[in-house]
Amino acid sequence: MSGQKKEFPITWGMVIDIDKCTGCGACMASCQTENNVEPQREASNKLRATSWMLVYELTNDKAFPNHDIAYLPRPCQQCGNPPCVSVCPVIATDKNEDGGIVSQVYPRCIGCRYCVAACPYHVRYFGWYDPIWPEGMEKTLSPMTSVRPRGVVEKCTFCHHRWTQAKDAARVAGKDPDNLDDGAYVTSCVQNCPSGALAFGDIKNPKHKVHELVKSPYAFRLLERLGTDTQVYYISRREWVRKLGDNYLKSE
Amino acid sequence: MGLDRRAFLGLVAGGTVGAMFTPIPWKLIDDASIWTQNWPWIPRVPKGQVDYVATTSKLCPAGEGLKIMRVAGNPILAGGNPSHPLSCGGVSALARSEVYMLYSPARIKSPMKRNGKTFAPITWEQALVEMAEKLGAAKGAVASISGDNTGTINEVLTALTAKLGSAGSFMMPSEATTAAKAMKLMGAQGQAGYDFENADTVLVLGADIFETWGTSSRNRKAFGANRPAGAKPANTYVYVGPSRNNTAAVCDQWVPAAAADLGVVALGIAWHLLKAGATSNAPGFDTFKAVVNGGFGPEDVKRATGVAPETLAAIAKALASAKAPLVVTGSPFGQGLGAAPVIAGMSLNMLLGRINKPGGVYMLPELPSVVPGALTRAAMLDGDLPAFLKGVESGKTPAPKALLIYDANPAYGLPEAATMAKALEKIPFKVSFSSFMDETAALCDLVLPNSLPLERYDDVATPYGSGFCVYSLVRPIQKPICDTKTTGDVLLGLARKLSIDLKFDNFQQVIKEKVASLAKVSGGFVAKDVMPWQVAAGKPAPALVGGDLWKALEAGYAWTMVGQAAQTAMGFAAEVVAKAVKAGKPATATVLAPYAQLRTGTPVTGMPCQDLTTVPDTELLGDTTFIRVNSETAKTLGLKKGQMVKLSGAGVDCQAKVHIFESVMPGMVSAPLGFGHTAFDYYSQGKGANYLSLAAVVEEPGSGLSMWIAPEVKIA
Ligand code: SF4
Ligand code: SF4
């Protein structure tokens, strides 16, 4: 861990309303196709599958009928204090001015997987296989995101390319690209969630909805006590969900 | 190349240790990485002009409007269309797959004819000649099956079938078929439509409304709209069903009850409403009251279902005191429910005075049909396909001489798969109009591939569950990738060959005429600034600017209408309820409680290639699917976590692994549907088991409808 937190004027953040997520997986499918993750014929082997966005099933561990479940969509948490950055020997990953988004430079990554081991949220994926699309399907690749070769580490980027596009659009419209309207830049998973469970915006910008949402008494972050200071917030009215999110032991 | 990437990196790493402090190795590593990642077989991303076009999803039954991103004219990404009332910007994992399915390895690339055990490609002209000959000879005994609930294509298909001498035109069984039967028995006019947007208290009996039931994307948007993150929700949803499924996971309350008991629970709530003075002028009220009071008191219901008296009383109170309560009834797995539970659920809406009211149930009129001789949707939904095929199998019903199968996969998607397959074998000539090599196509004599939704003209008219009449356009935004044709065009070509006049030359004309007919329906408008639920709530409907309708539809807007079919005789159908809903003793055998999810596709699509990743390892691991039981049931049956078991029912066996999941009722085995394909591509094939095949079909007393809502299974 770097132990040194940098502050940025623009801090992109996601707020996930767990009480609304039905666990449908549309966010996962959206992310995959937006970011050119190849369809994986071995995807039922979860140890080798890649999904930048992953929906976990949480349970309160009680027996029927007191059992309860919740779904927790998990993109890269974009830590303010990212454990993955300090362990990278080639500075392929970094946290910089870019809205506080933890970047990942694929051509520089040597696939040593220190970052995979360092990330407490398991958001980083090592490409075990060559990305191969069924014949013809490569025509559906998005031009916005490069295709990663086997042997490098990849992860959610908050659909960084969409920010670039939003800034360009703002410039064309004569607006300030550093002060985007709420909703001018949203990620693919946020846009497509049919439940409206996800929100996205600049946490520091009072005009953005997420600015207020993160202050909700029901908001929490994952493993908050590790001090990673993540930019993804979760909201649930259920106490057991909030406790689980911060990895409380059963005795606590 | 003799040196692979890993070995190369090893060499570099060996030399780096002593050189950490000069910038040169860093630069070298950078270059090396670039070099080692520059494999020629890694696809390059496309370049070209980006544009967005609108259409509607046809693969996903929820009818979402789509915005498709194209690069240099090629569709790249499907996202939800924010201006479409059934999408509001959301999209299901299934609708998102419209683009990728264009290149699915399971696509049928050209027309094919059976040649012994395999298929040989033929030309479209040969296919047409062959079909004309065989269907001409089969005249008087031609049947058809459609799996498309919402398309005008059904008019072409049923009109042609009728002219050929129909042995029956059927729809694949779904929530829509059950509900249509219920409405018919109640003497109601129109299709039941649920106004979630204006409802404040919603009781969901069984229906998986946020996953596979009806307009699920729209349902979720409506649910979420009044539930700001972290704040007190402005609406209340209660789910009643055998497991805490995707819908129950976000509802305010889950009331465990077997799918077979949904009608009993409804009548138990009716008992409270009647006691509190609810009354109705509708025909059959007195009989209904007598039935309810005669056997559905709180203790009766508790004995039969296990639902506590105070739970029922609280639900009844919440409904009675709500401003806009709504009751929705459906099957937890989207099919197989009898008509009686739907009638019982609808009776609650009647007692609460919720018919044709904002936030209640709108009885939606059918849109005008344009092909002469076509069956109405109501008539088509009236057929009972499982009963028909079972009759054919047993010899009670004469087998049709020919069968046309459109967008349907009965060999996989029906209960009692073994019986159904035998029935299909008895039909001498079968044609499948499928886009993918599915289980049914593999049994057919001719396979005539339909172009996919992004390659054809098609439409979506008022999917079941929509609270308003809605019509949206599906239009080709790319040329057919394979040698496929729009089935509508093929059928019209066939009609010409057989000298049958269906009025139209091609399917685009049919759609154009349909749109023209909508422009004349009074009360219809394009949902743009005003949405239909706002009109239902009292906002004036905007005028329809006539000539522009086609253009507006092409731009991705939907035509909508807040409709109410006039009701003259909608009643309680109490005789049916009396015969079919019984507060008996709870089942003692193990009962299968299947669930379905959009991410595992439909019988027609298989599992979309990108969606396999979204399936969790508690559902599918390797090639094995899991069943879910709670720990109490596991103990009773002697099952252990992760154990392989054999499920048997309807003369079929299926393998499964055991997952202990406490949100399933005792005595129930919850099982995912959508797996166990023997056809399609490697994303679907051989993954898990098809648990629907274990379900035996029984006849519902009172309605005569086929049902398979609570099949018993043996576990060994
Ligand atoms: S798309 Fe939305 S509802 Fe579905 S799993 Fe993702 S966050 Fe949850
Ligand atoms: S923000 Fe973008 S990259 Fe990250 S999970 Fe969502 S869709 Fe994927």
Name the poorly predicted regions of chain A: none
Shape descriptor of chain A: globular
Q: For the record, what CATH class of the domain at 197-322 and 339-353 in chain B applies?
A: Alpha Beta
Q: Quick one: overall form of chain B? A: globular
Strand count, sense and barrel status of the largest sheet of chain A are: 4 strands, mixed
GO molecular function (chain B): 4 iron, 4 sulfur cluster binding; metal ion binding; molybdopterin cofactor binding; oxidoreductase activity
Pfam family, one (chain B): Molybdopterin
Family (chain B): Belongs to the prokaryotic molybdopterin-containing oxidoreductase family.
Domain Molybdopterin dinucleotide-binding (chain B): 623-693
Q: Short summary of the structure?
A:
The complex is a heterodimer of chains A (252) and B (716). Chain A has helices at residues 26-34, 83-87, 114-118, 160-172, 188-192, 209-213, 239-245; strands at residues 12-17, 54-59, 69-74, 93-95, 102-104, 125-126, 153-154, 198-202, 219-220, 232-235.
Question: Notable features of this structure?
Answer:
heterodimer, A: 252 residues, alpha+beta, Alpha-Beta Plaits, four-stranded mixed β-sheet, two-stranded antiparallel ribbon, 10 strands, 19% helix, globular, B: 716 residues, alpha/beta, Phosphorylase Kinase, domain 1, Dimethylsulfoxide Reductase, domain 2, Barwin-like endoglucanases, seven-stranded mixed β-sheet, five-stranded mixed β-sheet, 22 helices, disordered N terminus, binds iron/sulfur cluster
